[in-house]
C-alpha cells in the first residue's frame, strides 16, 4: 500500500535533547537525595517517566510520593532551565518541508509531556509546520508501549501499513513494531546501530535522510 503519512518522534530525532533530558533526571533525583548517575539514565532516554522512575528506583512511581515530585522537578527543569539548551538536529526543518511537499500527512508521536511539546517544536524550528500530535497524555503508558503510536494512527486515520515512523531509540522501534508500523531510525539520538537494528533503515540525522531521500523507504 502506498505511503500516506509519517509519524514523527521529536526528542533525539528532530532535536538533540537526549543528553539534556538525562541530565534533568539526574538533577531531579538529586533534589530528593537520590544518587542517580548520568550513565544510568542515558540509556533509558526515549521512555517516559512512568518507565524511567521505577527502573531507576523500583519503590517509586511517577504518580505519587517522591516519584511524582521527581517527575515534576524534571519537567520544571526542562521548561524553565535546561530546555533552553535544546537545539535542532541537522536538517529537521528541511526534512519536514520535504515531507509536506510530498503530500505526506505528518503526525507527532512523542513521550514528552504536552507542556514540553511547544518548546521542543520551537527548538526543532518546525513549530509553524507541525500541528497534529499525540503525547504522553494520549496513552496509558509511554514508549516502549505502543499506545502513543496507536493514538497517532487513530488521529491520522491511517492503517499501520500506510505510514512510516521516524525515531531514534530502541524504544521507538519496539513501540512502532507493537503497533505494526515500520520505523526509520536516526543516529543523532545517540544509540548504536546494534541498538537500532529493528529499524528498516538508519540515517545519521534528518539531513542525511533528506540527502538520500530518493533511495530511502520514504520514496519506495
Walkthrough of the structure:
Keywords: Hydrolase. It comes from Thermocoleostomius sinensis A174. GO terms for molecular function: phosphoglycolate phosphatase activity. The radius of gyration is 16 Å and the shape is globular. 39% of the residues lie in helices and 13% in strands. It starts with a strand and ends in a 9-residue tail after the last helix. The protein has 220 residues and is α/β, with parallel strands linked by helices. The relative contact order is 0.18. It has two domains: 5-17 and 86-219, 3-Layer(aba) Sandwich (Rossmann fold); 18-84. It has nine helices and eight strands. It has a six-stranded parallel sheet with strand order 5-4-1-6-7-8, with helices on both faces. Helix 1 (18-30) packs across helix 4 (65-80). The mean pLDDT is 96. It has helices at 18-30, 38-41, 49-56, 65-80, 92-101, 114-123, 147-156, 170-178, 206-211; strands at residues 5-8, 15-16, 87-88, 105-109, 133-134, 163-167, 182-186, 201-203.
